[in-house]
Specification:
Elements (H helix, E strand, L loop, with lengths): L20 E8 L3 H18 L4 E8 L8 E8 L2 H4 L7 H7 L7 E12 L10 E10 L3 H17 L6 E7 L8 E7 L2 H10 L3 H7 L7 E16 L1
Antiparallel strand pairs: 1-3, 1-4, 2-3, 2-8, 4-6, 5-7, 5-8, 6-7
């Protein structure tokens, strides 16, 4: 089965960025708690290496992971040029990754473009949950327009804490597809998001997706923001 990463919404204020970019590192580990603890300590170091604005976090899958033991490191930059400034071969990067060489295996590194941003702002240490779906569509602009309508419907019907972001996958087996992430503060709130899709107000938007998308895979995630560099 082809591998891909299901990242959660990057809940940061990125509307001012011309073309925000995300690096996604898919790893596998038998000790997820230790990996996240390492990320908590090392992310601030990574954030300062090039002293560029951005956000770093991790996500652990709940349901829908492609392999047991998957974990995900993500870093958001204001542009692809900023994102490409860093290198895994940087001595400062290698010093930090050396600390987890015995508990993680890096499977993939991918680059995504933010095509629909979230307006919610999170700070280092914040946590959130998400439900992600990877989709294939021949009409990305129309698809994103319907996502905007669905998000507005959520906000008008008691789900002001729900946010939808979308990313275009630029590398790997799923290049050109769209990752859609619906996020909320807690896992049970994500469950409420899914329940609400059966409501008449949500069905109006959902009906517009018919014939517009092919659903490839879905997953749920628990995520944490480890570092914010402004």
């Amino acid at each position: 089965m082809k591998r891909f990463f299901q990242t959660a919404t990057l809940l940061v204020s990125i509307a001012a960025f011309s073309q925000p970019a995300v690096q996604v590192v898919t790893v596998n580990t038998e000790d997820a708690a230790a990996y996240v603890a390492w990320a908590q300590d090392s992310a601030p170091v990574f954030a300062k290496i090039n002293n560029l604005p951005g956000v770093i976090g991790t996500c652990l899958p709940g349901a829908g992971a492609e392999e047991e033991g998957d974990a995900y490191w993500w870093s958001l930059a204001p542009s692809h040029a900023n994102l490409f400034t860093g290198s895994p071969q940087d001595p400062a990067v290698q010093k930090e990754t050396e600390k987890v060489k015995d508990i993680r295996t890096v499977r993939e590194r991918d680059i995504w473009s933010v095509v629909k941003s979230s307006e919610q702002v999170l700070t280092a240490g914040d946590t959130y949950a998400a439900w992600n779906i990877l989709i294939e569509t021949d009409s990305p602009a129309a698809y994103l327009a319907v996502l905007n309508e669905l998000e507005a419907a959520y906000h008008s019907n008691g789900f002001e804490d729900v946010h939808i972001a979308a990313y275009r996958v630029n590398t790997g087996d799923y290049s050109g597809n769209i990752m859609v992430s619906s996020s909320a503060p807690t896992p049970d709130r994500v469950g409420a998001i899914i329940d609400a899709l059966e409501e008449p107000w949500a069905q109006e938007s959902m009906a517009q997706f018919e014939g517009m998308r092919k659903w490839i895979r879905g997953t749920t995630l628990q995520c944490q923001v480890h570092a914010v560099n402004q």
